Amino acid sequence: MRFGLLLASLLGFEGGPIGMDGALTTANVPAQFLEDLYLVGHFPLMTLQVDPRISYAIYVPKAHYNPDPAQGNGTTHNSTAATGKLPLLVYVHGTGRNIAALNEELASFADEAACAVLAPLFPAGMDGPNDVDSYKVLRSPSLRSDLGLLAVLDQVAYRWPGIETGKVFLMGFSGGGQFAHRFLYLYPERLAAASVGAPGRPTFLEESQDWPAGIADVETLFNKTVDGGLVGKVPIQLVVGDKDVEIHGSPEFWEWQRETLGGDGGLAQMNVTRLESMRQLHASLERAGIETQFDIVPGVAHEETGVRETVLGFLGPLIRKAAGLQ
Fold first, then answer.
1. Is the CB of residue 114 less than 8 Å from the CB of residue 77?
2. What phi and psi values does residue 79 have, to the nearest 5 degrees?
3. What is the reported pLDDT for 100?
4. Among 19-33, 47-61, 120-134, 247-261, where is mean pLDDT lowest?
5. Nearest by Cα to 85 from 101, 64, 105, 104
6. Rg for the chain, CA atoms, rounded
7. Quick check: 138 and 146 in contact, CB under 8 A?
8. Dmax of the chain from CA atoms?
9. What span, in angstroms and rounded, lies between the C-alpha atoms of 53 and 58?
10. At what angle do helices 304-322 and 105-113 cross, to 10 degrees?
11. How far apart are CA 210 and CA 204, in angstroms?
12. pTM (2 decimals)?
């Protein structure tokens, strides 16, 4: 459904369980069968009903999950103190579309921190056979990846009523970091915290440049404005390795790409290292009065696993507090 997300938006379905008619939920499945149906533990990669090009995987820790908070029939463990629901950590992949962390470190983290972990998957090629970047900028000719994530959250809320989806914890590195900080600008009210890892070509809070370099035309593109006051209320981490100092692609590559492919989905040529661009992003946010935790990790190049401990060190206490563990 090429324009499914746009159509759903125009039809007024935003915020509802789009495409979930007849779907089993943890509230209507006997508790003893939840694991047999993969509704706790690792759930199989699932297509997004309103746009089957997008899919998602989710891990729900059995020991902490309350399948029906409305009825109070939970497990033996606390979930979110105020709602009886598990906090949700959203992990956005990079350009390589690798979500293996969900099956490894992040699942173990979820068991320990009492949260669910969601990994949306935006395949390459959605905007044509050479497209690898469209999801990063949130809007392209055939894709609104921001609405895609919101629709995924709607489906999660419907199928797993014991997961808190109103405000989520967001993390992304490299291409995922590009998505994460742009989503933060547009939807701060949906985020409990955000970790932005080493985006090579960030969006600065500058009215002098159009999206995705700046925010001058955001209202025209998204029918939303960037509210710096709301963004500033979200706990934000910027994280990069101190050896992340290589520039992706030579000047000759970028020139060839412009001539052959006509650009890079609206993204500018990468002219500075990710370490330098993170310093620039940090400064841009500071000028807007937005405080961040800026972590430069020693001895790490452009390696997601190298900064993961620092990322979870930032998000962990916030998630555990939301889960009622602190």
1. yes
2. -120, -160
3. 92
4. 247-261
5. 64
6. 19
7. yes
8. 62
9. 17
10. 20
11. 10
12. 0.92
**Mean pLDDT throughout 131-160?**
95
Q: How far apart, in Å, are the Cα atoms of 291 and each of 212, 226, 285, 298?
A: 21, 16, 7, 22
Does the pLDDT at position 221 exceed 90? yes
Residues in the chain: 326
How does DSSP classify residue 16? S
**CA 102 centroid distance within chain:** 13
Place of tokens 């007024």: 12
199 preceded by a cis bond (ω within 30 of 0): no
What's the mean pLDDT in 95-108? 93
The average pLDDT across 20-45 equals: 94
Query: pLDDT tens digit string along 147-185?
Result: 999 999 999 999 999 999 999 999 999 999 999 999 999
Contact 270, 278 (CB under 8 A): no
Could you tell me the end-to-end alpha-carbon distance of the chain, in angstroms, rounded to an integer? Answer: 44
Helices within the chain (DSSP H only): 4-10, 105-113, 145-159, 175-186, 218-222, 228-231, 251-261, 274-287, 304-322
Rounded distance between C-alpha atoms, residue 287 and residue 283, angstroms: 6
Distance CA 307, CA 38 (A): 30
**The pLDDT value given to residue 18:** 64
Share of the chain above pLDDT 90, in %: 75
